[in-house]
Amino acid sequence: MSSESVRRRWPAWYFEAPLLVAGYVAFGLARAAVYRGDAAATSTAVFVQRLEQTLRIAVEHPLNHAMLAHPVAMYLTGYFYRLCVLAVPAVLIWLRVSHFARYRRLLAVLVVLMLLDILLVWLFPESPPRLAQSGIVDYMATYDILGGAASRTPSRAVNPLAAMPSMHIAWTTWCAYTAWSVLRRRGPRRAWPVWLFPLGTALVLLVTGHHYVLDIVAGVALVAIAIGLTRLVQELYNRRCTKF
Questions:
Q1: 138-154: buried (b, 16+ CB within 10 Å) or exposed (e) per residue?
Q2: Is the pLDDT of residue 191 over 80?
Q3: N or C: which end of the chain has fewer CB within 10 A?
Q4: Burial of 99 (0-12, 13-18, 19+ CB in 10 A)
């Protein structure tokens, strides 16, 4: 089936856009509703802290304190944390308009990783460093950077005890993977810089005290699993089609 015939059978953008927005809202509400209490989240956080200390990758505290003497850096990282997720709809629009042949599969990867995230948040509730690690300064909440103060308390839209895995890393890694998979065909060297986006996001998550290193690793792994599952389902579907 050609790309053009697939495009004709796909819902028009004015039908699809509200569905995607509704899906994102439903994801946010579901993630916020998966609230298993402070005890379970603190227990997981303590385990992660001890494991990172054993592995000698517990860098959250020194990175966080490196920001405190630099007000401009604090605000820049705070704004980056809040606004980097806008890259997801931007990449989706770019894909749909300019690279529709890859749009469906990459959208499926995004949907799968978000569904898997809800399951993992239920299985592994975790308080972030800013709430569970001694000495971490939650400067986004202290200075209320883009509504940072509201993120301290649970609500219908916020679950502060859902740090594992990091969806900021999952989303920005998906953005980088999407851009890389498209751009590498034109030139591999031109494609590699897109990975600086999730790397920068990882640094911001650590310095703001929103995530542990292992949360970031889990976020990247989540994207890899979603890509693998999507490919597996597509291969099984193609094999079934060839039999008939």
A1: bbbbeeebeebeebeeb
A2: yes
A3: C
A4: middle
59-69 pLDDT, tens digit per residue, is: 999 999 999 99
| Residue 37: pLDDT band with limits 50, 70, 90 | confident
What are the residue boundaries of the structural domains of the chain, listed by start?
3-243
d(CA 109, CA 223): 8
In this prediction the pTM is 0.93
pLDDT class of 235 with cuts at 50, 70, 90: confident
Tokens matching residue 44: 């997981």
DSSP 59: -
Burial code of 24-56, b = ≥16 C-beta within 10 A, e = fewer? Answer: eeebeebbbebbbebeebbebbeebbeebeeee
Amino acid (1-letter code) at residue 243: K
Cα separation, 66 vs 226, in Å, equals 35
Q: Which DSSP string corresponds to 174-212?
A: HHHHHHHHHHTTT-HHHHGGGGHHHHHHHHHHHHTTS--
